[in-house]
Each structure stands twice: as structure tokens, then as C-alpha cells.
Sequence to fold (197 residues):
Amino acid sequence: MDINLARIFGIVISAVFVNNFVLSRFLGICPFIGISKKLDIALGMGISMTFVVTMSSLITWPFYHYILVPYHLEYLNIISFILIIACFVQLVEIFVRKFNPILYKALGIYLPLITCNCVVLFVTLLNIQNQLTYLESIVQGFSAGLGFGMALILMTSIRERLEMAKIPSCLNGAPIAFIIAGLMSLAFLGFSGLIVE
Fold:
């Protein structure tokens, strides 16, 4: 198998910085805004998301190419991918509940919501649409999770600093979070080299 390291590196940089699924494509905003209040919780969510996206990419690519395509069942890709993602989220939920009950309680509803998080499904579908190889699909899944985790940790760090700042009461909570998200998104657009006229 021929591995193109430049292409792999390009996929990593693209998924983490240039086309960050949260800050450039605006996917997965619900946990991004909801979880980004404490750093340890954000770190746990980032690790969970990275695991689920990577493992989903690892399984959905061969499932699509070796089961759906030979039997001409490509139209079932969304349903089957959602089922695969749901299985991995259940594994993560069981693992976190057993080994870190505090994190499990802190993540609350957001952990099972990874199942329907559009980032996970979008990455698996994008792997197929862009005709990535198996290795490239896994790398994109892992990089998308890293990008999500990085954006979440950056957002949490900023929000923790703002806890000590004097901001108008009308901006407390979600309003300031959306303003920060917008500014972060503008900053990440700089990685894409867009020229605004």
C-alpha cells in the first residue's frame, strides 16, 4: 500500500485548522457551547469525541466498500452509519460511567448526544464522498476529533477567563459564548487564506 505522507499531513492540517468542523463548518455547536464551561469536562468530551469519530471512520469505510457497494445498497449509508456510531457511543458511555463517574455525571446529556452529533456523521459521509482511502479516512476521523477537542478546549479556556472579567449582565452565558465562537471562527478563517474584499 502506497502511503502519501504529504496528503496525510494535508488531511490533518485541513481537519484541525483550515476546515475545522466546529469553527469553519459550524457543526457540533450544541456540545461546543453547552460543555465549554470547565476544562476537565471539555477535555473528557474532546477525548470521547475523538475516539467515536476515529472508530466510526475505521468501521464505516470497510462497511460501505465491502458490504453496501457490492450489494448496491449505497442508499443505506446514512442509516447504517448512524447505527455504527450509536454502538460506539454506547461503548464510550459505558466506559466513562465505569471508570470516571464524575466526568459521566458532568457530561450529562451531551455524552449520549454524540450519537446524533452531526460532526461524527458528516466525517464518515465525507470520507466516502471524497473517495478517501482507508488510511486517509481514519486519519481524517482522528483529525476531526482533534480539531473538535482543540476548539472546545480553546473555548473553555476563554470562558473560564471571562468568569473573572466584568462583562455586562446581558451578555452572561450563551450570548458571550456565541460572540467568542464568532471571533474564534473569524480567527480560524485566517488559516484558509481567504481574502475578504
Q: What stands out?
A: Residues 39-68 form the longest helix (30 residues).
